[in-house]
Amino acid sequence: MSFYDSTVPAYLQILGSLSGLLSKAEAYCEAKKIAPEVLLGARLYPDMLPLSKQIQLACDFAAKGCARLSHSEVPSTPDTETSFAELRQRLAKTVDYLKTFTPAQFEGADSRDVTFPAAAGATMTLKGQEFVNRVSFPNFYFHAAIAHGILRHHGVEIGKRDFLGVA
Amino acid sequence: MSFYDSTVPAYLQILGSLSGLLSKAEAYCEAKKIAPEVLLGARLYPDMLPLSKQIQLACDFAAKGCARLSHSEVPSTPDTETSFAELRQRLAKTVDYLKTFTPAQFEGADSRDVTFPAAAGATMTLKGQEFVNRVSFPNFYFHAAIAHGILRHHGVEIGKRDFLGVA
C-alpha cells in the first residue's frame, strides 16, 4: 500500500457518509415541516459555524489537502450552497475531484514539503505526512463530526454508523 | 516514512489536545461554580454519550487500534473515571501505551488482516490500512470532535485550535 492509500480513500469514506447524513436531514425537515434553512443554519453555539459551512469546510479540507500533498493547483470553491441538494452536489464534486488523483501523484509526498496558509496571513511548512496528521485529517474529521453533532443535537435520527458510512 | 508514521503520531496529536480541552473545561467549571460532574455528564442529545464516555472511547479507539494493527494483545481498560483529573490520567496512560509501539511493529501492517468486533457479536476483517481509514480513524476523531462539540455547546471558551493542539 502507499501514501495515496492512507489519504484519498479516507477522505472519500467520510465525504460519502456526509451525503447520506444530509439526505436523512432533508427527510427529517420534510417529515417535521421544518424549513431546510433552519437546519442548514443550525449551530452548536452562537459563535460556531452552521451546518452548511461545516460541510463546505470538510469538502475544502479534503480537496485542498489532496491538492497540496500532490503539489497540484489548489482549487478555490465559493461557498454558494443554500440547500441540501446543493450541498450534496458540492460533496459529489469533491468526490469526483479526489478521484482524479492517482497513487503516482502521492508517491514520496509523505516526506515532501507542504506549504499552507496559517493564522494571520502567515504560511507554514510541514512534511506531507505531518501535514496530514496535524492539519488536514484533524480539520477534515472535525468539521464532518461537528456536522453530525449539529444534526443529532437537532433531533435528526442518525447514529455513528451513519457517520462511518456503514448504516 | 512508514505506516507507523501515518497512525501513531496522528492519535498522539489529538490525545494531547484532548487533555488540554479538559483542563480548560475544568477551569471553566471552577470559574462558573459548575459542579464538574455536570460537564462530565453533558451530552448533545439525550441518547448520545456524555463527555466522559467520549474521552474514554477516543482513548480506546487509539489504544485498541494500535494493538490490533500490530497484532499485540488488545488492552481492556475499565471506564472508571469520574473527574477531569482522572480522565487526563486515562489520556496520559493511553499516550504512554501508544509510545511503546515501534515502527518495526507496524511494518507491513497496512496490508495485514485485522479482525475486530463488529455489530451483534460478529467480527469483521479488513486489511490494516482499510481498518484505519474506515474504522479506527473515523471513530477516534468522531469521539474527540464530539467531546469538543459538547464543551463548546456548554460554553467552554475553546476553539478549533485547541482541538488541533496548536492553541
UniProtKB/TrEMBL annotation, chains A, B:
This is DUF1993 domain-containing protein. Signal peptide: none annotated. It comes from the Bacteria. It comes from Bradyrhizobium oligotrophicum S58. InterPro entries: DinB/YfiT-like, DUF1993.
